[in-house]
Design brief:
The structure is a single chain. This protein has 19 helices and 26 strands. It is an alpha/beta fold. It has an eight-stranded antiparallel beta sheet with strand order 3-2-4-1-10-9-11-14, with helices on one face. A six-stranded antiparallel beta sheet has the order 5-6-7-8-12-13. Strands 18-17-19-20-21 form a five-stranded parallel beta sheet, sandwiched between helices. Helix 13 packs antiparallel against helix 14, helix 13 runs antiparallel to helix 19 and helix 17 runs parallel beside helix 19. The termini are close together. The structure holds 2-deoxy-2-amino glucitol-6-phosphate (AGP).
């Protein structure tokens, strides 16, 4: 879950690499490093512990007065997996003779065996990383042809990698390769870039090539040659990025998270655009390239994902049951991939992922395909591994999500799952009349979200009165239970408050013991068939001294026991999950801001988890 970037061209590489690392910092930010290659092929490496800013300062200091600016280089921002975040473990890593070096995103699973073999040959390792074993292994095979040496070394490697390699003897030539970790090439005028994410390329070009697993490419300033490990030529299409550099800027907001929260009327409008058929009360989802007949054959929906995407799946589960009369089940992807799931050709597996790179979800997709299920992706990043592995599905069109804490992707995922449930429902027992009513409710979403955003200041005031708490609870019933889980996750992730989400009825079976006077308990108490039950659960907590913060629907009576109210627009209980989630995102954001936390890059986290 690191970020790598490479540049070969005619401009000074250092500022381009450092700018790209800043764009990739959400992938990992405990240490960073780069290697610059002069026209004579010589490699200069600079590493630093901490954020990219620290590396930038060091590069400035060390390169001050350097003769010619190198026009070729590779760089890396790290999320440590093997070896603590130290300068020694930061990338790039070198071969034994220091004639080549590389940066790597992923994990070399059999690195211990490789290391032992090389140590037996006299290698003395400098770091504790898995990556150094690969660098030294490539060095062992290097006879002047870098691509060949990389291919030979990768043939012995197990695990996941996105790498960029430079060699002293081949100045201006970079070899990159991927398996399991994302890698995108950027085609510029007389320059070529490579990065873990297109977000680091959009400032330089919109023409990109998404590399596939097993691709090894030789890249120079004006030439790209992609092959497989056996030297077979691989053709890859050039894609055009649909968003502009501004999409990866803060746009005047203090944090990417706040910007992305406020983008949700537009991002959800994008998720709905051209997909609502108000006349027939249904949804049109081109990506579900499956015939109406095949869709009618589906007997069960299985939703898989991790973290926030899993919570979106849990909301979807209610919609498929309620709107489409379909059996629906949610499974954590990390469990699904190993439990030998009972899945077959009459099952539709929906793989939900913002990044499209999460290792457990990707593996779950592959397992479901092996089992013969119909597998569709609900993904944000176009060109990502899960989007290509599923080959069909629905993009949520939320645009780049930079902040580690997922916000607009969650509401986009839920909106798309509601559209899918409407589509499948209308193919079954959902009436035209109800379909039209639900389609109309969905079309209101951008406005409903805007109404919640308009209360940003009021929610900040509620946050101010809970920011000192070290523990908090989020309670909900029905589709609001996963929203409670998501609210707790957001608060945990960015403010480090120990927050737990529970089904409201579960509190009295144990967790209620944790309540002490003043403990904040956020209750999702919007208009729903279970509202009375929710209030009695809130009452039980209030009786133990809890401070009740209730999320209620506009115009709703009887919220007297609440100490604080956050009002969301009144709408269908399933549709309400989206404005309610936005309210909880703002609550978490303001608590974290008041606690002075690093909101966009919380400790110990990374944006896409590409290892198990
Ligand atoms: C959410 O805020 C977290 N960043 C994390 O739980 C995330 O949702 C999870 O890692 C799944 O990521 P994905 O949607 O990119 O697959």
């Amino acid at each position: 879950m690191c970020g790598i970037i490479g540049y070969v061209g005619h401009q000074a590489a250092a500022p381009i690499l450092l700018g790209g690392l800043r764009r990739l910092e959400y992938r990992g930010y405990d240490s960073a490093g780069l290697a610059l290659q002069g026209p004579d092929g010589q490699l200069t490496a600079i590493r630093a512990v901490g954020k990219v800013l620290r590396l930038t300062e060091k590069v400035k200091a060390e390169l001050a007065g350097a003769p010619a600016a190198a026009a070729c280089g590779i760089a890396h921002t790290r999320w440590a997996t093997h070896g603590a975040p130290t300068e020694r473990n930061a990338h790039p890593h070198f071969s034994g003779d220091r004639r080549l070096c590389l940066v790597h995103n992923g994990i070399i699973e059999n690195y211990r065996a490789i290391r032992a073999r090389l140590e037996a040959k006299g290698h003395v390792f400098i770091s504790e990383t898995d990556t150094e074993a690969l660098a030294r292994l490539i060095g062992e095979h290097y006879q002047g042809d870098l691509r060949k040496a990389v291919g030979q070394a990768l043939a012995q490697v197990e695990g996941a990698y996105g790498i960029a390699v430079l060699a002293v003897d081949e100045p201006g030539l970079m070899v990159v390769a991927r398996k399991g970790s994302p890698l995108v090439l950027g085609l510029g005028e007389g320059e070529t870039l490579v990065a873990s994410d297109a977000a680091a390329l959009v400032a330089h070009t919109r023409r990109v090539i998404y590399l596939d697993d097993g691709d090894i490419a030789v890249v120079t300033a004006d030439h790209i040659d992609i092959r497989d490990r056996h030297d077979g030529i691989r053709e890859r299409e050039v894609a055009e990025l649909g968003w502009d550099p501004g999409a990866v800027e803060k746009g005047g907001f203090e944090h990417f998270m706040l910007k992305e929260i406020h983008e949700q009327p537009e991002s959800v409008r994008n998720a709905l655009r051209g997909r609502l058929d108000a006349e027939h009360g249904t949804a049109v989802l081109a990506g579900m390239a499956t015939s109406a007949r095949d869709l009618a054959e589906i007997q069960r929906i299985l939703l898989v994902g991790c973290g926030t995407s899993l919570h979106a799946g849990q909301v979807g589960e209610f919609a498929f049951e309620d709107w489409a009369d379909l059996n629906a089940e949610v499974q954590p992807a990390a469990e699904f991939r190993y439990r030998n799931p009972l899945v077959g050709s009459r099952d539709l597996v929906l793989a939900i992922s913002q990044s499209g790179e999460t290792a457990d979800t990707l593996a779950a997709v592959r397992e479901a395909k092996v089992k013969g299920a119909l597998v569709l992706g609900v993904v944000n990043v176009v060109g990502s591994a899960i989007a290509r592995e599923t080959g069909q599905g629905v993009f949520i069109h939320a645009g780049p999500e930079i902040s580690v804490a997922s916000t607009k992707a969650f509401t986009g995922q839920v909106a798309v799952l509601l559209l899918m449930a409407l589509r499948l429902g209308r193919g079954r027992r959902l009436s035209l009349e109800r379909g039209r009513a639900l389609a109309a409710e969905l079309a209101r979403l951008p406005e409903l979200i805007a109404q919640v955003l308009a209360q940003d200041a009021a929610i900040a005031a509620v946050a101010a009165r809970m920011a000192a708490a070290e523990h908090a609870f989020f309670l909900g019933r029905g589709p609001m239970h996963p929203v409670a889980l998501e609210g707790a996750l957001k608060l945990k992730e960015i403010s480090y408050v120990h927050a737990e989400g529970y089904h409201a009825a579960e509190m009295k079976h144990g967790p209620i013991a944790l309540l002490t006077p003043g403990t904040p308990v956020v209750v999702l108490a919007n208009r729903s068939p279970q509202l009375d039950k929710v209030w009695s659960n809130a009452e039980e907590c209030k009786a133990r001294g809890a401070r009740i913060i209730a999320v209620v629907s506009a115009g709703q009576e009887g919220a007297d026991l609440a100490d604080e109210r956050i009002v969301i627009p009144d709408c269908d209980p399933l549709v309400a999950t989206i404005p309610a989630a936005v309210a909880l995102q703002l609550l978490a954001y303001h608590v974290a801001r008041l606690r002075g936390c690093s909101i966009d890059q919380p400790r110990n986290l990374a944006k896409s988890v590409t290892v198990e």
